[in-house]
Design a protein that fits this description.
There is one protein chain. The protein is an alpha+beta fold. Helices cover about 35% and strands about 20% of the residues. Belongs to the actin family.
Length: about 220
């Protein structure tokens, strides 16, 4: 069984109630920023939800677990994760492997070059005979969140009368954006797409125009 679970979380009060009346951007937590864990308490809560609710683990019968390490993961973070899993989740076995190596294993290869494009970073890593060539690896701190910020700027220019939160911008990006193969396909898609209007949760309507298209 596989699941894709967003890592953004909502802050709650000490009594377990949800904070109401505040903008969404002010009550959300991003425990992972640019590929690095920034809030270990939030990560623990997220893992508890994923493992016990999402995957159906039972307390007292947790078993073994495999983690993938993104490129450039600090040694201290790896050690803290191992400690967290054994002390707080009572696992019986822990194994970690580098993300780029497992990506190649998934397609039946042990050598190659992997490109991992994520929410906050892009990792490029050559793998030789199952081992990452770290000297030749590169991390670029650019990802989906930067596209969201760019789209927010453009939507603000074309819809100055509409107050759009970053969470709404994220939904607009996921619903309407696309990736094309080359410049010709980009131009064809750009001028063949109908004008869309998007209704926000508060009833406001915004119109992303053609100039909101992102050309990288």
């Amino acid at each position: 069984m596989s699941q894709i679970i967003p890592t953004q979380m909502k802050r709650m009060l000490d009594d377990g109630s949800i904070i109401d009346g505040s903008p969404v951007d002010e009550v959300t937590i991003d425990p992972v920023v640019r590929g690095y864990i920034s809030d270990w308490d939030a990560v623990e809560d997220l893992l508890h939800h994923v493992l016990y609710t999402g995957l159906g683990w039972e307390i007292g019968n947790e078993g073994n677990i495999l983690f993938t390490d993104p490129l450039c993961t600090p040694k201290a973070n790896k050690e803290q994760l191992v400690q967290l899993m054994f002390e707080n989740f009572n696992i019986s076995g822990f194994y970690a492997s580098e993300q780029s190596v497992l990506s190649l294993y998934a397609v039946g290869r042990i050598s190659g070059c992997t490109v991992d494009i994520g929410h906050g970073k892009i990792d490029i890593a050559p793998v030789i005979e199952g081992a990452v060539h770290h000297i030749g690896s590169r991390r670029f701190e650019f990802g989906g969140t930067d596209l969201t910020n760019f789209l927010a700027q453009e939507l603000g220019k074309s819809n100055p009368q509409v107050n759009i939160s970053m969470s709404d911008v994220e939904k607009i990006k996921e619903q309407y954006s696309c990736c094309v193969e080359d410049e010709l396909a980009y131009q064809k898609t750009l001028y063949s797409c109908p004008v869309e209007k998007h209704t926000l949760p508060d009833g406001q309507v915004c119109f992303p125009d053609f100039y909101d298209s992102i050309d990288l």
